[in-house]
Design brief:
Elements (H helix, E strand, L loop, with lengths): L11 E2 H8 L4 H20 L2 E2 L8 E3 L5 E3 L6 E2 L25
Antiparallel strand pairs: 1-3, 2-5, 3-4
């Protein structure tokens, strides 16, 4: 038997939050950016690259704490074959870095 336990993100997606507020103050932007960097640092220290980071994959709890979601494209930071490179071109095209295209 397998159980999957998820945390409820009652604040919804960052995409919706951005759409509703339109513009963040510098203080709010800094608050979210620090959380995002801490979350990504935690992933990278664990050897995981997310590879599809976008506002739709960042969730908020009831205290406006960021939760990074959707690790469907995640891969080892060192690459699947250990050569330090990730070879596949994937993710959401409009959010991809220019050098990937």
């Amino acid at each position: 038997m397998t159980f999957l336990i998820l945390e409820l993100a009652v604040g919804g997606e960052m995409f919706d939050y951005i759409s509703e507020t339109e513009q963040f103050s510098e203080e709010i932007a800094r608050y979210f950016f620090k959380q995002l960097l801490a979350g990504l640092d935690h992933c990278h220290l664990g050897g995981i690259a997310h590879r599809d980071l976008k506002p739709e994959n960042i969730l908020l709890d009831n205290n406006y704490t960021l939760k990074i979601a959707d690790f469907g494209f995640a891969a080892p930071v060192d690459g699947r074959d250990g050569n330090q490179f990730l070879q596949t071109k994937l993710g959401t095209p409009s959010y991809m870095a220019p050098e990937i295209h």
